[in-house]
Amino acid sequence: MKTTALICLTAATLALSSPAHAACFADYKAKQDNPLKLHYGVAEVRGDCTKANATQELRLRLTQGGWVLLNVLSVFDSSGLQERQSDAGQFYLRY
């Protein structure tokens, strides 16, 4: 009896603690120095779909690629991807 109750409790906890998250994306601006290069990009964001989380994630990813994050312009779901693809060019979902 205790085992059944424990299994039910565990299943309920897992179901409530890990809801399905919609895909989240951010568009951003970044730069490199010497010589100065700027780019606009779109990246997928993991975790919370907030500017603060996107900023933290992208700062790390871009730094590893030799870029400095200037700012996150917005966060959005997959419905906003197509309209930004041509503007982001080679930096569309690169980081």
Fold blueprint:
Blueprint: H1 2-17, E1 24-32, E2 37-45, H2 51-64, E3 68-76, H3 81-88
Antiparallel strand pairs: 1-2, 1-3
Q: Could you explain how this protein is built, in words?
A:
This protein has 95 residues and is α+β, with helices and mostly antiparallel strands. Residues 8-19 have low confidence and may be disordered. It has a three-stranded antiparallel β-sheet, sandwiched between helices. 40% of the residues lie in helices and 28% in strands. The protein has one domain (22-91). The chain has helices at residues 2-17, 51-64, 81-88; strands at 24-32, 37-45, 68-76.
Main attributes of the structure:
single chain, 95 residues, three-stranded antiparallel β-sheet, 3 helices, Secreted protein
Question: Can you give me a brief rundown of this structure?
Answer:
The protein is of the alpha+beta class and 95 residues long.
